[in-house]
Every structure is written in structure tokens, then in C-alpha cells.
Automatic annotation (TrEMBL):
<feature type="signal peptide">
    <location>
        <begin position="1"/>
        <end position="24"/>
    </location>
</feature>
<feature type="domain" description="WxL Interacting Protein peptidoglycan binding">
    <location>
        <begin position="32"/>
        <end position="150"/>
    </location>
</feature>
<keyword id="KW-0472">Membrane</keyword>
<feature type="domain" description="WxL Interacting Protein host binding">
    <location>
        <begin position="157"/>
        <end position="276"/>
    </location>
</feature>
<keyword id="KW-0812">Transmembrane</keyword>
<protein>
    <submittedName>
        <fullName>Cell surface protein</fullName>
    </submittedName>
</protein>
<dbReference type="InterPro" id="IPR010317">
    <property type="entry name" value="WxLIP_PGBD"/>
</dbReference>
<keyword id="KW-1133">Transmembrane helix</keyword>
<feature type="transmembrane region" description="Helical">
    <location>
        <begin position="297"/>
        <end position="315"/>
    </location>
</feature>
<keyword id="KW-0732">Signal</keyword>
<dbReference type="Pfam" id="PF11797">
    <property type="entry name" value="WxLIP_HBD"/>
</dbReference>
<dbReference type="Pfam" id="PF06030">
    <property type="entry name" value="WxLIP_PGBD"/>
</dbReference>
<dbReference type="InterPro" id="IPR021759">
    <property type="entry name" value="WxLIP_HBD"/>
</dbReference>
């Protein structure tokens, strides 16, 4: 009986801890490290990431130095991910969602790296990457991240508990320095949860818009301002992104309007006015229902476990009494 209880406790603890994952972009104590080796077209004075000038019809070469600090041979996965502004207003280099099919130039197709390399124990290797430039001139900016992660083995006795990954930004600057006129559109508004409004926006052009100032105002049907929110965000080229607004204790059942103003430097400005969709009356009820069902399932599982233990205990006692 004691062994059964101990076994159940071990299973319960493992079920909680097995899914724990830690992500880091750099680590001084990591079992491996990654550093860039620049191409001949690297922008002078730029360090720690790739900043490469567009060279029509040419092929450029760069390298990654991967150092395995462990006593075992290790495999590492390498990805090229388009840089995207995420809903936290941070440039994310780890999102491997495919690029928009309408994009004229796809950086994830232009930049080619091996998908996997094996580095011997306590050694370094220079991994080659290439950039295939189209023949035409280009006046925009493309951004990606070279994402490197250790590929841990998984078997019946081991799971991945910690994942350390490196993201090295890669920027390609057009050979024509006259950048296209920026274009930002507001696509739609969505009530995501009880207190959240998601504003979906698109940066249509191949422009990196740094320090764009956001000023959002939520107004009632009479024009009274219910909430004001201000932010400053870097917007990556050709990116759809979410700007979240916390509606707090505002009554989402009443008619409301969003007034949103974006300012970039002294010359670019965008203003939008859009009605906010009313929150469904049963949204909160559904959420509560789900929580209750979850609690009911938990108590059901506990009750079932207790019943099984009682049955095993009685069976054992009867067996002992017969002997």
C-alpha cells in the first residue's frame, strides 16, 4: 500500500515538472555558444549582428561560429525566421511562421543555412550561410533572425527540461537608400477575453519603423474618453501585429469607439477611428462554465484515485486474512 501511494505521488510530481521549459537568447554558463562571422558586405561599425548591404545578382557568404562546450558530440538546429513585432511590442526572431505569400522578396528564402549540424565535443565549427540576391535594385529593409538551438535527445527516461537558444538578428539594407513611403493599416478589432481588446495592424512596406508612438483613446457613444493608453514600439518590415489594449472595468456592453493615432518621427502620422465590437453577454458565463468543468474533472479524478486505492487495500486485506 505504501509503495502504491509513493508511486502515485511520483507520477503526479513528474506530470507537473516534465513540461517546464526555459528559454534564453544568451547564457554565459551555457553548454554551447554562437557568434557571428561577418560577410564582406557587413555595414561598417555594426557589431553583434548581421547588417548586410543588398548586392544585386550576387551571392554573399557569412558564417556562424558554434562552440560546443560539453564533453559529448551535440546536434544543433538552425532556422531563418522573419523578424516580427509581437503583441508585447518586442521584435521577435524566434517565430517560424511562413512569410506572407504576397511579399516581393522573402528573406527566409534568400538566406540559406544548413538545417542541422553536429559539433564534436569541446570544439568549434564555422557554419556557412549564403544570401542569394535578386538581380533588381532594392530600396527597403528586410529583417530576420538566425535561430540556433540544441537538439536534445528524448527517450523513455528523459525529457527536455531546459532549452537554450540563440537568436542573431540579420538585417538586409537596400542598395537604394531612398526608402519607400511607410504604410500602416488597421485591419480589425477583436475582443479577445473579458478585459482585452486586440487591434490588428499591418506595416505594408519594407520599412523598419523605430520608436513609433501609439496613442489610443476609448470613447463612449457621446465622445467621452473612458481610457487613454500610450506606447512606443518598433515595427518590423512587412508585418501584421497585434496592439493590445486593456479595457479594465469598462462596460463592454455599451457602444464604444477606438481613436488611434500613430506617429513616426516628424513626418509620418496615421489616425484611425473604428467602432469596437460589443462583448458577447455569455462570454464571462462561458469562461466560468469552463472553469467549473475543470474543477469538476479534478475532483472526479481525485475521487476515482481514492476509490481505486480503497479497492486495492480491501483486496490486500482479504488476501492476507485467507492466508
Amino acid at each position: 500500500m505504501k509503495k502504491i501511494v509513493q508511486t502515485l505521488l511520483i507520477v503526479f510530481i513528474l506530470s507537473i515538472t516534465a513540461s517546464k521549459t526555459t528559454f534564453a537568447t544568451t547564457s554565459d554558463n551555457s553548454s554551447y555558444s554562437v557568434s557571428p562571422i561577418y560577410s564582406e558586405h557587413q555595414t561598417e561599425g555594426v557589431e553583434n549582428f548581421f547588417d548586410i548591404r543588398w548586392s544585386p545578382a550576387l551571392t554573399d557568404t557569412f558564417y556562424l561560429r558554434i562552440t560546443n562546450n560539453s564533453d559529448e558530440d551535440k546536434a544543433y538546429g538552425i532556422e531563418v525566421n522573419k523578424a516580427r513585432t509581437n503583441k508585447n511590442g518586442i521584435v521577435d526572431y524566434s517565430d517560424n511562421t511562413p512569410e506572407n505569400s504576397a511579399s516581393l522578396y522573402k528573406i527566409t528564402e534568400m538566406v540559406q543555412v544548413p538545417k542541422e549540424v553536429i559539433i564534436l565535443a569541446n570544439s568549434s565549427q564555422e557554419v556557412q550561410g549564403t544570401i542569394l540576391f535578386p538581380k533588381d535594385s532594392f530600396n527597403g529593409i528586410l529583417m530576420a533572425g538566425i535561430h540556433v538551438s540544441e537538439k536534445n535527445k528524448i527517450d523513455a527516461k528523459a525529457t527536455i527540461s531546459n532549452t537554450v537558444a540563440y537568436n542573431i538578428p540579420l538585417v538586409i539594407r537596400g542598395d537604394n537608400d531612398e526608402r519607400p513611403k511607410p504604410e500602416i493599416t488597421l485591419n480589425k478589432l477583436t475582443i479577445q477575453n473579458i478585459d482585452g481588446l486586440s487591434v490588428e495592424l499591418s506595416n505594408k512596406g519594407s520599412n523598419l519603423l523605430k520608436e513609433v508612438k501609439f496613442e489610443a483613446k476609448i470613447k463612449d457613444k457621446n465622445g467621452k474618453i473612458l481610457k487613454t493608453q500610450k506606447s512606443t514600439i518598433d515595427i518590423t518590415p512587412e508585418t501584421e501585429f497585434i496592439y493590445p489594449i486593456n479595457l479594465d472595468s469598462i462596460n463592454k456592453q455599451e457602444a464604444m469607439t477606438l481613436s488611434l493615432k500613430l506617429s513616426h518621427g516628424n513626418k509620418d502620422e496615421w489616425q484611425y477611428t473604428k467602432k469596437i465590437p460589443k462583448q458577447k453577454k455569455d462570454l464571462k458565463v462561458q469562461s466560468t462554465s469552463i472553469n467549473k468543468e475543470g474543477k469538476h474533472f479534478l475532483w472526479y479524478a481525485i475521487g476515482l484515485s481514492a476509490t481505486i486505492l480503497v479497492v486495492i487495500y480491501r483486496y490486500k486485506k482479504r488476501k492476507e486474512s485467507r492466508h
